[in-house]
Amino acid sequence: MKYSLNGATIPIEAKTISVSFFTNQTTLGSPSISQKFTEKLRDVVSTQTNLSLMKQNGDLQFDGSIIDYNVAPIAIQSNDQAATNRLTITVSVKYSNKFDESKNFEQNFSRFSDYPANTAISAQEDALLTEINRQLTEDIFNKAFNNW
To answer: 41-81 pLDDT, tens per residue?
Structure first.
């Protein structure tokens, strides 16, 4: 049996959820990207479900790591210089549901945000990460709880 809260389908037996710390496996990006992503995913699951958040061994579990942090030019001006850069972040996620193994998955999720090339990534990173993390955590939540 399942119940729905805000459109999310969660096993009725599930009482707890754990989100492990997502380590940064890339060589780029600020040291805080792991903390920011992990906190955002924990916030999403605690505000959009009524499950108790645990450090580990929840009835439902998220584990993973940040596996790619890439900045690349996407819009080139006539003088061969970039007008716009794109920050792309890829997260590897393993989701485990101890009540319904058919819902388990291991998948990579990628999202990006663009910024003006004449601005240093360091000046934009906080805002870019906020937006990318919002999109990534929405995708992950939807995959786990909305049969997306």
So the answer is: 999 999 999 999 998 899 999 999 999 999 998 877 767 77
Report the C-alpha gap between 38 and 28 in whole angstroms: 17
Structural domains for the chain: 2-145 (3.30.160.150)
Q: What is the 3-state secondary structure (H, E, C) of the chain?
A: CEEEECCEEEECCCCEEEECCCEECCCCCCCCHHHHHHHHHHHHHHHHCCCEEECCCCCEEEEEEEEEEEEEEEEECCCCCEEEEEEEEEEEEEEEECCCHHHCEEEEEEEEEEEECCCCHHHHHHHHHHHHHHHHHHHHHHHHHCCC
| pTM of the predicted structure, to 2 decimals | 0.90
Exposed, middle or buried, 124 (CB in 10 Å: 0-12/13-18/19+)? Answer: middle
| Residues 19-34 pLDDT 10s | 999 999 998 888 899 9
